[in-house]
Amino acid sequence: EPIQERFFRPHFLQAPGDLTVQEGKLCRMDCKARLLQCFVRLRPFPITLFTLKVSGLPTPDLSWQLNGRPIRPDSSHKMLVRENGVHSLIIEPVTARDAGIYTCIASNRAGENTFSLELIVAAKEVHKAPVFIEKLQNTGVTEGFPVRLECRISGEPSPQIFWKKENESLTYNTDRVSMHQDNYGYICLLIQGATKEDAGWYTVSAKNEAGIVSCTARLDVYTQWQQPPQTTKPKKVRPSASRYAALCDQGLDIKAAFQPEANPVHLTMQSGLVESDDL
């Protein structure tokens, strides 16, 4: 009995969509094509139709194009075929020249099929370890008043911030203690109504892919009566062995000082001196 063999053009079972890859990274495009092969057995009467789908027999030819130009294998562009029929285009490292429209063409004796995707190459990310522009400062606050522990940090990408008091991590905000961060690198720990229990050493750490940095400062909380009084100390005169020596040390006119009409009390008030026990 004669056997008639017919072939159909391939189609893709698996194809990637548009991709965005960072410059310097690896890019991999996978696809899988299948060829349908149909066998029809002919008999005089009656006619019976048998259809058999055979994957990858014969294997279709695949080629790749970038913006309509064929891609040739080289040191950074590799084309692989795995046993399960998956074809891969691997680009490593990806550069700005690799951006564009990629087209994969699968062809055999019956025809061809294609799919396209766009590869966007993102600029290479710059990594900079965190650094303190402004560090934490030791701070004192009166009990019951608010206090801010503030610093400023820079880094690329933007670092994660961690706070600790002594050896205890501060992981969440409360109504009284809250952590804040803005887009300009300012970091703040705000305490509403400081108490004696808030006193201690505080550490802020910043971490990103390039490194980690930390800074520590002391917070003191005191009551109103503990504040040192703001008074000026009285002037003192070093004790001397004689009235003559004490007066000479002040640059006074000795003769005028011992005139009968001179008033010692008046002289003392004018000079602002505090007399010692010798006088």
Describe the structure in your own words:
The protein is mainly beta and 279 residues long. It has 2 domains: 8-122, Immunoglobulins (Immunoglobulin-like, Sandwich); 128-224, Immunoglobulin-like (Sandwich). Helices cover 7% and strands 46% of the residues. The protein is built from 3 helices and 20 strands. The strands form 5 sheets. Strands 3-11-10-6-7 form a 5-stranded mixed sheet, with no helix packed on it. The protein has a 5-stranded mixed sheet with strand order 13-20-19-15-16, with no helix packed on it. The protein has a 4-stranded antiparallel sheet with strand order 2-4-9-8, with no helix packed on it. Strand 17 and strand 18 (186-191) form a beta hairpin. The chain is rod-shaped, with a radius of gyration of 44 Å.
Q: What are the key terms here?
A:
Immunoglobulin-like; Ig-like_dom; Ig_sub; rod-shaped; 3 helices; five-stranded mixed beta sheet; mainly beta; 279 residues; Ig-like_fold; cell-cell adhesion mediator activity
